[in-house]
Amino acid sequence: MAANTDTANLAKENTPPISVWIMPVLAAWVVPGGGYFLLKKMGRGGLVLASVALMFLFGLGMQGIMFTPEKGDMLTTVINYGGFLCDMASGIFYFAAAIFGYSQPDMAGDVHDYGTKFLVTAGLLNILAMVDAYEIATGKKD
Amino acid sequence: MHLNLSHFEAAFLFSLFTSVVMGVTTKKTDQERLHYGAYCFVCFLVALFAIGWAMKLGHG
Fold first, then answer.
1. Is the separation of the CB atoms in B59 and B45 below 8 Å?
2. Please, which residues have CB within 8 angstroms of residue A129's CB and are 6 or more apart in sequence?
3. Handedness of CA A80, A83, A88, A89 (dihedral sign)
């Protein structure tokens, strides 16, 4: 019991305060690369911004579908909710596409399929950048 | 705008963008980032050709 309390206290002491990392992580989500820009890592921010933006734009160009949170059987639910979260992780690109009414029906075809994967992967790459921004902001990494 | 990329073009672009971000986010020095990004890119391309040939040979 005492060991559990000690471990919990140690974990609490090692957890950096939210005020240290919340802005870089939020910035990294809203504008891909924004976390790096906030932390004065311009080169890395530029590379992430360019990669995520181009990945997303190629996904739109290939007319990939945007996932919506729809329920169905277990697999359908996981795919739709997971895809929706990944799409949203692209930040401003996702919101701009949604605001301008981008909507693509689910069509058969390898190019559309690649487009869907590009849109999802752009969000996943931005999640990697958000985690990196967290680590830099909390001093775990330079 | 409608892009009609081939499998190879799409996979090449996917590999490029993914390798850049993986290189940027995973290592600690610029040299390590460059090496790791290039390593990921080469791995993607090797896998692309290897799996492509495996599918072609598998289908006959």
1. no
2. A28, A32, A33, A35, A36, A48, A52, B21, B24, B25
3. positive
Instruction: Measure CB to CB from residue B3 to each of A62, A110, A132 and give the nearest one.
Output: A62
Q: How many CA atoms lie within 13 A of A22 on its CB side?
A: 3
Q: Which two tokens stand for residue B50?
A: 């290897």
Cβ neighbours of residue B37 under 8 Å, at least 6 residues apart? B19, B20, B22, B23, B24
CA distance B28 to chain A (A): 7
Quote the pTM value: 0.89
Q: What pLDDT is attached to residue B42? A: 98
pLDDT band at B31 (very low <50, low <70, confident <90, very high): very high
Q: 């075809």: which residue's tokens?
A: A109
Residue A31 is which amino acid?
A: V
Write out chain A residues lying below 8 Å of B8, CB-based. none
Q: What ipTM did this prediction achieve?
A: 0.91
- Residue length, chain A? 142
